[in-house]
Every structure is written in C-alpha cells, then in structure tokens.
Amino acid sequence: MAHFYVVKCIVMLFFVYYVCAQQCDHTVEAARFDCHPEPFVSQHKCLTRKCCWKPVSSLITPANKNRSTNSFGENVPWCYYPRDFPMYQIKTNESTAFGQRLTIVKQQSTYMPNEILHLTVDLLYETSQRFRLRIYDSTNKRFEVPLPVPVVETKANATDYEVSFSQAPFAILVKRKSTGLTLFDSSVSPLIYADQFIKFSSRLSSSFLYGFGEHQQPLLINVTNEWKKLTFWTRDFPPTQQVNLYGVHPFHINVEMKSNSPTNFHGHFFLNSNAMDIDLQPLPAITYTTIGGIIDLYLFTGATAQDVIQQYWDVIGKPAMPPYWSLGFHLCRYGYNNIDNLRAVIQRMHDSEFPYDVQWTDIDAMLSHLDFTYDQTQFTGLPDLVRSFHSEGKHYVNIIDPGISKTQPSGTYPPYDDGLKRAIFMTKFNSTEPITGKVWPGMNRRWARLVDSHHYFLHLGLTVFPDFTNASTIDWWTNITGTFHDTIPFDGIWIDMNEPSNFVDGSHDGCTDNSLDKPPFIPHVLGDSLSAKTLCPSAQHALSFHYNLHNMYGYFEAKATNLALKTIRRKRPFVLSRSSFPGSGQYTAHWTGDNRATHEDMYFSIPAILSFNMFGIPNVGADICGFELETTEELCTRWMQLGAFYPFMRNHNDLGHRDQDPAVFSWTAQQIMKQALLMRYSLAPFWYTLHHQAAMTSRTLVQPLHFEFPNEDITLGIDRQFLIGRAILVSPNLVSKATTVHAYIPQDVWYQFPSGIKMKVVGTFTDLDAPLDKINVHVRGGFIIPMQIPGANLMTGRGNPFTLLVAQSASGNATGNLYWDDGDSIDSIETKAYNYLEFSLVSGVLTINAIVGSYKDSPMRLGIVQVLGFSKAVTSVTVNGNDHRDFFYNIPDQVCSSS
C-alpha cells in the first residue's frame, strides 16, 4: 500500500508540473507580462506570487540582473503571469444612457496589499470617435483627477468603433469597424486593482507610437525589437534619456499599419495623475502601472493623426491664443548679475540692428532670490528700464519660483506674512503647519556665482510652497503679483521650479513612514523615491494629498498665474511654465528645460516640440544655443537658424558661462543669425494665424512629416525635419561642420524659401546644400502664406505692408488665410474684434475674401504678391479688372512678383 501512495504522489507531482508548465509555456517571450516589476526579483519571490519563473538564456548585465538582453533587447521579464492567474469575472451587466455598466468581481486576492475585489466598469460611447473606459471601486470613493473634462450622459448614435467583452475572465476588446483592427484588448494580461497598485495591459495595433511625455527621446517609439519602460512623475532634472522629467503626459498615438489600405491612427489618454510606469513590449503591447486613482482611459479613433489630436484636445482643452508680441525673439540669461551688464546686452543688440521683442531676467535680478523682489543695489533702475522697453514696443518677462522664503524677519516679506495669515501653504501630513523645503531664496549672492553645486546647500533658505488648489491662494497670488507689478510693470511671468523642485528630499524635517511616503510599489522614478528632490507625498493640498497632485502642481500654478495676469494687466496673458500636465496649454507656453549646448540636445529639441504640439501645448521651444555648458559660434549659429522656426523662440544660458546673445558673436555669424530672425519676423502673420487655428480648430502649429504624408512609409519616424502647419518644411543642419543635409522631400510640389525656385527631385531623400549661412526651408505648393515686412520688433512692425507668398500646386491652385487683431486683447475672438481673410488662387485668379472685417484700429496694406510656379511667362497682370504694370516675372525661376 505504501508503494501505491508513493506512485500516486509522483503521478500527482508530474501532473502539477505538467499543468504549470502548460500555463507558463508562452510561445514567444514578447507575450510575457511582468509579474514582479519591483527590483531584486528572485525565483522564490516570483513563485510566492504564483507566477511563472523562467530565466531567458541570454546576456545578463550586472546592472540589470532581474531582466535579460536577447533578440528583444533589455527587460524581458523572468517572472511573468501564467494563463490561469486569478482574474475578474463579470457579475452584472446593464445598459445605461451612456453605454453599459458592468460589475466585476475577483474571488481571491493576489500579491498586492488591499486589493479591491469588487469593481464597477463604465463603458461610455461619448462620441462617434471617442470611447471612454472607467473602472473604479464599487464601494469606496477614490481620488479622481480634478481636470474639467466633458461630461457626456448620452450614448453616441453611431461609432467608428465596436466594443465587446468576455465574461470569464473579464476583458474588453475594441476594434475599428471599417478595418476590424484591434484598438484595445485587455485580455493579454490580468487586471490588478489594489489600493496603491493598479495594473492593466492592452495589445497595440502596431509597434510604432508617438507621444508619452515628458521624456528626452526620438519622436518615434519603435518597440519592434525592444522592451521600453517610461516613468511619469514630474522631476527637476536636465533633459536626459530614460529619466522622468518636468511634465507628465500619458497620451500616445498608435500607428495602424495595414497593407493595401491607407494608414490610420488612434490614441489613448490615461487620465491619471499618480506616479506611474508605462511598459511597452514587442508583442506589441502596453502596460499601465499606477499607484493611485482609478482607471480612466480615453480611446480616440481618427483617419489622421490630426483627427486624434483634435479629439484629445476636445477632452483636455484647447490652447490659449498668445499675445502677438510673444511670437518674436526673446533674450535671457542667468547671470546678467547687474543692470550695467543688462543694459550693455540691450545696447549691442540695438547697435547690431537685431529684431527682438522680449527681454527677460532670471533669479539673479531678485534680492537674495526672493520672489516678487528685485535687487535695488545691483539692478538699480530696472523699473525705468522696463518702461523704456514699452516705449519702444518691447516687452519684459520676469521669473517667479513657487518656493516662498520663511526666514525673513517678521513683517518684512509680505508674500510669506500674508500667505501664512491666509493659510495658503501646503502642510505636513495631518497638520496645519506648512511643510518646509529648501530652494533658492536666501542664498548668499557670492555663492550664486559658483558652479560647484555643493556650496549651494550651505546657504539655501527654508521655503514653503503655495497650494494652488486652494481658492484662497488664487487671491493671494493675484494680490502679491499685482503689488509687484506696481513696481515693475512686467508683461509676462516665467514660472520655474514648479515640479515642485526641492533641494532636499521630502522636507527639511523628513517625511513620514506611512504608505503615502513609502508605498508598497514605487515606479522607476529617478532617485528611487517619490520624495527625491521634491516634497513628501504625504504633504497636504486643499484637494488631496501631494501623492495624488504632485504631477499637477505646475498645471495649477499656471492656471493661477494666467488668471492673475488677466486681472492685473487686463490683456492677453503670457506665461511660461517648466512643469506641465494635460490641459496646461490653456494657460501657458512651455520650454524644454535645462538643456545643454550640444548638437545632440539641439536635435532632441525637434522631437520635443513635435510631441508637445500633440500634448496640447503648441507654444513650445528650447533654450537656443543651450542652457548648460559653453556654446560655440557654429553651434549657436545653427541653433539660432533652427530656433527661428520654433513656435516659442528664446535664447537663454546658464550662470558662469559666456554671453551668447546674437550680438556677441563675429560680424559674419551676426549676419547669418539676423537673416534667420528676419525670416521668422516676416512669417509672423502666418504663425499668428496658426495659433488662431490651434485655439479654434485644434490644429498643431508644427507636426512631423508622417502626420501629413502617412502613406509615404519612409516618413515614419523622421524627426530631423518638421512641418510648420501644412505648408512649410524645415530641414536644419544638426551635425557639426557638415555642409549638406540629408533630407526627405515628400511627394508634392515644393519651392525653396525665400528664392521661390521649384524643387526638381521629390519623393526621396536628397542631399541639400547647407553651408553655415543657410537653413533649408521649403514652401509647399497649394498654399498661400501671409507675411509682413519686418520691423525692429513685432509691435513697431504691425503697420508695415503685408506680403502674400502664393505657391501654386501642380494644378495651379492655392489657398490660405490670415487672422489679425490688436494682438493683446483678452476677448478679441469672443467679440469678433478681428479680421479674418481667406485667399484663393484658381485658374490664375487670386481672390481675397474678408470673412470678418471688424478690426479697424490698424489699417492693413497689401504690399507685394509673389506667385511661384508659373509654367508659362507672365505677360500681364490685372487688379480689380484694371491693368497693373508694376510686376516682374523671373523667367528662370518661374516667379512673378507684383507690388
């Protein structure tokens, strides 16, 4: 009998092994989903979670012992989910006015504490192209992102997508009706839904994606042979690859690759403000792992990428219309140090006859780096200097950091005294005492001139942080900003360090040991702690804990600053913010942070501005010539040429480095930079019209070639060139000492700008001449570009004559438009106090239609019309039926100009 039991046990063990092997036997490594995303995984830890353990036979690097490098690259998990891992099942299913509501249950907890076993699933068919999936606790209310999104209570009558779901295990499947292509499929991996750990996955339509900010990375995310992890937690750190940076934008566009049919696009937006990881793998598939909130996922379908972006902006809000003057050239540096140096820069820019509109100052202009002050010893006369800017049509922007000094003598520093009285500062956990960090205020000026950062910490002052989710903070912020504006009449505000940045981890007093400060899972953030160089997650806002709102700090500060400027100046606000979140574009512009003076950083600025246009913050740029490190004349010249085609153009560099304003370089370099600036200024009406389209019809200012030419496969991932609107192609030289650019010219009609010469070779890569004095710019046939003769700055040049650049298509047609108002009023669009003109060229006849003509304050004069692409000689021109003899036809270039 004993032998029988031994045999029986052996058989049972063999059966268990056989069953487990089957449950873990995935045919491809790309189908593994990580069951132990924390570091230091082991076989014991993996099997304790009842997951599969199977090391990959490959190269194992000492730095990454938990993952492997093989044909799929790094991060192939050794610990992954078996097929029979416990999953949710549908318990109830009911139809609703908005779509369907399900309840799902799980019979047993798995490996994360406080797992929620009873969930509600809402399937919302919001529009024909927008589907929303919400999964939340059926019993207890959880934190939800305080972002105003559309509330849709009625199901769309018809949709481009079809939704189905499986009963047991529960899974959602969304397909595009027209092609049957999968847009979302959660069946690929288990749903884990615990109090501080939510993880769900979906199959991707292809391995090619755009989006996911803010990260320094190429434009195209290609996971054909790569596993990739992206972390989202706002952090003050110079742009570096594979690091979470200043903003959080969990939005992407997936390219739908399908043979024998046009390329389509769709997008996902995960509305969640908690720290998260997003993993991409070559299945292809995506996994979202967040440590709070709920699952609130939007899916956008569209025939084009612009359709997807438009649907996304419909949810997060359209970008604001900027003041006209902000489209000009901006100049700043950290380290003017005194008013004499600042005046010297302004004078040499004037003497060299550079057009520029906006002068900035950094924190060195403050008194001991205290917000809402200026150093009256080193910057004596700054208020009068700003007023002189205004008399010349120029503008001034100053910097404000969120950290407010708490160490000044009582009664001497109103921002702190009044803020303390109003109780508007963020507080410690379960306390009314403000949480204290260390940032710039109070630092000794002599140490500010040192580059060695370890000296900083000896002299930093203690600071507190405004809670911009508190309604009282808005009044306080407006009041202290207005008081400072009475002293220095600034025109815009630069809000920096608002991740929020902190020079100590957590607070001056440390953080708690509770689960907010030490959660059971920490995404792969820089520093391996949520409090690394920021505030304790347990710190309290009026709306919730910092654990939930950290990623939105810059968003709420930008909103408050925008409102303050409207109240104080009663003009269109200009705000520049480093940290951002979906919806920030309604209130602020953005720059890409503390980049470096390298050709690599110059290149990375292009995918950054393209991505932020997708994210709804189209008014974006990078510090031209580089912020950190010493620039060179060649690099700065090339960067000024490229920067002339950024939506937001600012030259800015760091403390301790030589000046890099254009007028400091050689005469030859100055002339090249000046030509780039003149190109920008001549195109200002075109840029302004693009901003109007962005604000009204959700079109990006700049875009990748692939978005406009999706069926030319070669454009997929091109990010060393870009399009302004649909009409201008920019192909900068990004390589040191190179004199040619290997550029792709899409299959269409193109003309060199500004010469108007027609390109003979299109639809292929070609080597364009690119000596130092040239940036290659081309105008697309079929478009009419409104331009203006430049002035010393945009405001003084507003009365100059306009120019129409008419680029004929292959059929001889072209269209365009122009939006024009006073450039500064808050309500120009709402009150229709503007002019809107439409241009059309058909069969050699150019027509100008005034659709709206309500703006009369500044007369608009048409000076020159230049038409490109005539196949026959032009022998006569008529204007309003009358012969017009003042024209010139260039026979070799087929260009006709009339004035």
TrEMBL record:
<keyword id="KW-0732">Signal</keyword>
<dbReference type="InterPro" id="IPR011013">
    <property type="entry name" value="Gal_mutarotase_sf_dom"/>
</dbReference>
<feature type="domain" description="P-type">
    <location>
        <begin position="22"/>
        <end position="83"/>
    </location>
</feature>
<dbReference type="Pfam" id="PF01055">
    <property type="entry name" value="Glyco_hydro_31_2nd"/>
</dbReference>
<dbReference type="Pfam" id="PF00088">
    <property type="entry name" value="Trefoil"/>
</dbReference>
<feature type="signal peptide">
    <location>
        <begin position="1"/>
        <end position="21"/>
    </location>
</feature>
<dbReference type="InterPro" id="IPR000322">
    <property type="entry name" value="Glyco_hydro_31_TIM"/>
</dbReference>
<dbReference type="InterPro" id="IPR048395">
    <property type="entry name" value="Glyco_hydro_31_C"/>
</dbReference>
<dbReference type="GO" id="GO:0005975">
    <property type="term" value="P:carbohydrate metabolic process"/>
</dbReference>
<keyword id="KW-0326">Glycosidase</keyword>
<dbReference type="GO" id="GO:0030246">
    <property type="term" value="F:carbohydrate binding"/>
</dbReference>
<dbReference type="InterPro" id="IPR025887">
    <property type="entry name" value="Glyco_hydro_31_N_dom"/>
</dbReference>
<protein>
    <recommendedName>
        <fullName>P-type domain-containing protein</fullName>
    </recommendedName>
</protein>
<keyword id="KW-1015">Disulfide bond</keyword>
<dbReference type="InterPro" id="IPR044913">
    <property type="entry name" value="P_trefoil_dom_sf"/>
</dbReference>
<comment type="similarity">
    <text>Belongs to the glycosyl hydrolase 31 family.</text>
</comment>
<dbReference type="GO" id="GO:0004558">
    <property type="term" value="F:alpha-1,4-glucosidase activity"/>
</dbReference>
<dbReference type="InterPro" id="IPR030458">
    <property type="entry name" value="Glyco_hydro_31_AS"/>
</dbReference>
<keyword id="KW-0325">Glycoprotein</keyword>
<dbReference type="InterPro" id="IPR017853">
    <property type="entry name" value="GH"/>
</dbReference>
<dbReference type="InterPro" id="IPR013780">
    <property type="entry name" value="Glyco_hydro_b"/>
</dbReference>
<keyword id="KW-0472">Membrane</keyword>
<dbReference type="Pfam" id="PF21365">
    <property type="entry name" value="Glyco_hydro_31_3rd"/>
</dbReference>
<dbReference type="InterPro" id="IPR000519">
    <property type="entry name" value="P_trefoil_dom"/>
</dbReference>
<dbReference type="InterPro" id="IPR017957">
    <property type="entry name" value="P_trefoil_CS"/>
</dbReference>
<dbReference type="InterPro" id="IPR030459">
    <property type="entry name" value="Glyco_hydro_31_CS"/>
</dbReference>
<dbReference type="GO" id="GO:0012505">
    <property type="term" value="C:endomembrane system"/>
</dbReference>
<dbReference type="Pfam" id="PF13802">
    <property type="entry name" value="Gal_mutarotas_2"/>
</dbReference>
<keyword id="KW-0378">Hydrolase</keyword>
